[in-house]
Specification:
The structure is a homodimer of 251-residue chains.
Chain A: H1 8-19, E1 24-34, E2 40-46, E3 56-57, E4 60-62, H2 69-81, E5 87-94, E6 105-113, E7 130-138, E8 141-146, E9 151-153, H3 162-179, H4 182-185, H5 195-206, H6 212-224, E10 229-235, E11 245-249
Parallel strand pairs in A: 1-6
Antiparallel strand pairs in A: 1-2, 1-4, 2-3, 2-7, 5-6, 7-8, 8-9, 10-11
The structure holds a DNA duplex (27 and 27 nucleotides).
Chain lengths: 251, 251
DNA sequence: CGAATAGTGTCTCTCAGACATTATATG
DNA sequence: CATATAATGTCTGAGAGACACTATTCG
């Protein structure tokens, strides 16, 4: 739309038309967690209506006029999973004109990292079909698997531009895992975890394997030497092998 | 606002009230460039009306119903500086309820990196007072200086939450400069630049000094060895000293 | 030649990757 | 004692930081 080539009449017409045509703003929630097999999972919901009926989508909802984006994200998360106090991070805002054919919708995507074992999407308000998909990252693409349903989604099986959202989300996780502490957010219990447990989270987030010795070395440097994490007396007795030490995040 | 504690009447009342009260969406442009003294500059405009009358603000405008966020950002940039084809990057979306007292405004902030010597804000459409401020970064804070006007702004001299936007912007520049190629976007001429010229951009973006020898070494490794940059025959003759080699970004 | 800027060589220290080795529990 | 997992030791090469040094131009 080039304003310079419009007549004044055309321009005023245009102004009137859009004065009442404000975009809708939503928050969309990329809710990640770890499953029992220590794999990265992402919560999706199945669309019941048009458009993209039957396809899988990232849960989300409108931003109310009296709540901030962060508040909207926290509310949506609670509605979906009944969880509060979860790590949230704004990811990216998607605003292509035709991304939703029904209306002009601008979506602010948020990342939520739910501690392992806490994700129970059946606790959500909405009576929608929800499912947590294992995220398998290859270079430049991903697939989403729901074993119990025998379902494998590729990027094109997703509604709207949610494929792009997931790409952005995985990119963010990949990038931040090494220079920030987001991996800790996915621990089952920050007050009691083993080093290997944390390593599996790093591996799930990056899609790469780490050498045990090197990982422990960098863990010590990054967390213990600084005093961010301390070793506990208690040791794991899960397996009938050498028990592993527990560690605790301080503060 | 807790929906669970509302009666149905209250809830419906609330729905009605907000149905016509959609937020406005704007794009705000953090327009960075390098001045003649190879310092980082940021373009601000002086507010003529309330609120924050007389304070300095980041330029921006409404997202039209028929343009994407990127298109809106490009349009705003053109209106402000008459420039096109400039590097743009979405920064962050600001959506606190009271960030603009007049109305609920959600602002998507964009970063624009204008090649040195190309920023002429007098070319803008609007008859507003605009000025490019030198950005001085200290750890945890910044100041903005306009020498010719004898003006020094601190964080609190900025309108709205634009202080936070600038923080986010500087943080992004700081972080990305080492692992991406954004510094190249600020070069006067990507087809003909000296290594030291690029170094000053790195220094301006990080607020830190680099060792010449080490910078050249990493420059060679990062750009020349890979074939992303080639050395030109032509050499600079600006000063009456040893001339420096020019380099060219390929593709 | 002296001054000023362009550009190089080299030493050290840190750290990541690879891989061998030791430690400790149970059956 | 065999076995499986936890945890440590060590070698190497890449790369960042510090700093001394050489190179090239002009007046």
């Amino acid at each position: 739309m080039n304003y310079e080539e419009m007549t004044e009449e055309e321009y005023l017409e245009h102004c009137k038309a859009i004065a009442f045509a404000r975009p809708c703003v939503t928050v969309d929630m990329l809710i990640f967690s770890m499953n029992k097999e220590q794999q990265l999972e992402l919560l999706l919901i199945k669309r019941g209506g048009h458009p993209f009926k039957g396809k899988w989508a990232i849960p989300g909802g409108f931003v109310e006029i009296d709540e901030s984006l962060e508040e909207a994200a926290a509310r949506e998360l609670k509605e979906e999973t009944n969880l509060e106090g979860i790590y949230l991070e704004q990811l990216y805002t998607f605003g292509d004109v035709d991304r939703d054919k029904r209306a002009r919708v601008i979506s602010v995507a948020y990342l939520a990292l739910v501690p392992a074992g806490n994700l129970d999407f059946s606790a959500g308000d909405d009576a929608v079909d929800a499912c947590s998909f294992v995220v398998r990252q290859e270079k430049g693409s991903f697939t989403l698997c729901a074993k119990d349903r025998n379902l494998v989604l590729t990027e094109d099986d997703l509604a709207f531009d949610h494929k792009d959202m997931i790409f952005k989300g995985l990119e963010r996780l990949n990038g931040k895992v090494t220079y920030s502490d987001i991996a800790l957010e996915l621990l089952r219990d920050k007050e009691k975890f083993t080093i290997y447990e944390l390593q599996t989270i790093y591996e799930a987030l990056t899609g790469e394997d780490f050498d045990v010795a090197n990982f422990r070395r960098s863990f010590k440097k990054k967390f213990i030497d600084i005093g961010r994490v301390e070793k506990l007396e208690e040791k794991s007795v899960d397996f009938s092998r050498k028990p592993s030490s527990y560690y605790r995040l301080i503060k």
